[in-house]
């Protein structure tokens, strides 16, 4: 698969040190990073709204990369990837498929968060043979209740953050109680651990197009999720204002045999607030 690489290449175990790579397919150059031991089924990470490669929490990636080949990527039009962000989740799933096939994989595990979880659902339904295991966090199904309100909540919290000169993620991902505020600040700090070779930020236009795609998805016809037969782990906080927590319950109910973890006293970023509990649970699920 990666035959062109020297066998004695040191294994990178820290996301902060993962080199920036790129691969071209279908007229688009996709930016990505990889770490962890190669060989075996890779875990591909599908990132959230407005996010780039720099938005993954190292406290979740690093524990998974200990025994798994982990790959994070910028989909078309995001961060350092070329092209234009499509205005539908379905087209984003097609781009992700193009990227995965370009790397030469025919079986993957998926770790997804928020918008990434929507893209992942579509990819699994279109290409069931590609995916072995599925992790869906902070996300919801097509046509889910209040999914189309994500844009309004996002803009409101971005304004609140701007007024206090904070990172919008502190408002969008975490509760505004003492524990939530502390967790939010700690999370934003962890995202700064990588100092060299950081990703290009997402453009305003790309971000707005993603929001449009989410709105469309929220108003779309629900998919038949009973077709998802892969082992699936679903997780969220109990107070998700972006993608309402009830939608995680909805996914759990509709994906047969799925497992659900809800972290009390946390929001959209519950898995980041409780990374010390969630990372081992995710590892255990992928290893099973």
From TrEMBL:
Keywords annotated in UniProt: Hydrolase
Keyword Hydrolase tagged: yes
Listed GO MF terms: hydrolase activity
InterPro entries hit by this protein: AB_hydrolase, AB_hydrolase_1, AB_hydrolase_fold
Keyword Transport applies: no
Domain named AB hydrolase-1: residues: 43-272
PANTHER family the UniProt entry points to: AB HYDROLASE-1 DOMAIN-CONTAINING PROTEIN (PTHR43433:SF5), HYDROLASE, ALPHA/BETA FOLD FAMILY PROTEIN (PTHR43433)
Official protein name in the record: Alpha/beta hydrolase
Organism encoding this protein: Pseudarthrobacter sulfonivorans
Lineage of producing organism: Bacteria, Bacillati, Actinomycetota, Actinomycetes, Micrococcales
């Amino acid at each position: 698969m990666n035959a062109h690489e020297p066998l004695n290449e040191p294994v990178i175990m820290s996301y902060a040190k993962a080199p920036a790579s790129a691969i071209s397919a279908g007229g688009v150059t996709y930016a990505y990073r990889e770490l962890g031991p190669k060989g075996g089924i890779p875990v591909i990470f599908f990132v959230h709204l407005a996010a780039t490669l720099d938005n993954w929490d190292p406290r979740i990636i690093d524990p998974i990369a200990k025994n798994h080949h982990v790959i994070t990527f910028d989909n078309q039009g995001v961060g350092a990837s070329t092209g234009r962000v499509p205005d539908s989740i379905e087209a984003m799933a097609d781009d992700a498929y193009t990227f995965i096939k370009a790397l030469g994989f025919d079986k993957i595990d998926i770790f997804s968060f928020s918008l990434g979880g929507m893209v992942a659902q579509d990819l699994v339904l279109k290409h069931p043979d590609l995916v072995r295991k599925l992790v869906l966090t902070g996300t919801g199904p097509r046509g889910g209740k209040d999914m189309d309100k994500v844009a309004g909540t996002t803009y409101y919290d971005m304004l609140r953050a701007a007024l206090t000169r904070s990172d919008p993620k502190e408002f969008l991902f975490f509760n505004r109680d003492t524990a939530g505020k502390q967790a939010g600040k700690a999370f934003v700090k962890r995202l700064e651990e990588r100092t060299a070779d950081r990703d290009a930020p997402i453009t305003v236009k790309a971000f707005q197009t993603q929001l449009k795609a989410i709105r469309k998805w929220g108003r779309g016809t629900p998919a038949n999720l009973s077709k998802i037969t892969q082992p699936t782990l679903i997780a969220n906080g109990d107070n998700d204002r972006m993608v309402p927590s009830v939608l995680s319950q909805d996914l759990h109910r509709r994906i047969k045999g799925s497992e659900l973890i809800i972290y009390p006293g946390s929001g959209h970023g519950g898995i980041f607030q409780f990374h010390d509990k969630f990372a081992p649970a995710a590892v255990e699920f992928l290893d099973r």
